């Protein structure tokens, strides 16, 4: 297990980041990301805390948008309460999905593996310049190893 100069394992910081996502602490998650970037400078740790922070941001944005429109729906007669309830159910389901992703990420980073959040890992990789570029070749034209195009 890799440890920092304070004697704390990197997995502790990454696990703490996903616990903060479960608790809905966006600010503390951002501060932990800043600490990982400035003080620790470990690529694995920064990628994990970045994925956790992005997941927390998604939860905050979804909750903020739903909260901003919650009072608006009641102004519509007859169907306003139905729409408000529907938005509440959708927001609840998204919160459940984010909670499940946070638990999966928590289990992965506690074991020392990459969290592997589906879209958020791509954003974290992009921040480090680790995105792989795919080049396509035309299979109908033979490739000459002596003269690459």
How would you describe the overall organization of this protein?
The protein has 149 residues and is mainly α. 67% of the residues lie in helices and 0% in strands. It contains five helices and no strands. Helix 1 runs antiparallel to helix 2 and helix 1 runs antiparallel to helix 4. The termini are far apart. The mean pLDDT is 83.
Characteristic terms for this protein:
67% helix, mainly alpha, 5 helices, 149 residues
Short structural summary:
This protein is mainly alpha-helical. It has 5 helices and no strands. It has helices at residues 10-23, 26-40, 43-73, 80-110, 120-128.
Helix proportion: 55-70%
Provide the β-strand percentage band: under 5%
Mean pLDDT: 83
Radius of gyration, taken over Cα atoms and rounded to an integer in Å: 21 Å
Give a count of the beta strands, DSSP E runs of length 2 or more: 0
Query: With helices defined by DSSP (H or I, 4 residues minimum), what is the helix count?
Result: 5
Secondary-structure-derived class: mainly alpha
Poorly predicted segments: none
List the helices and strands and how they pair.
Layout: H1 10-23, H2 26-40, H3 43-73, H4 80-110, H5 120-128
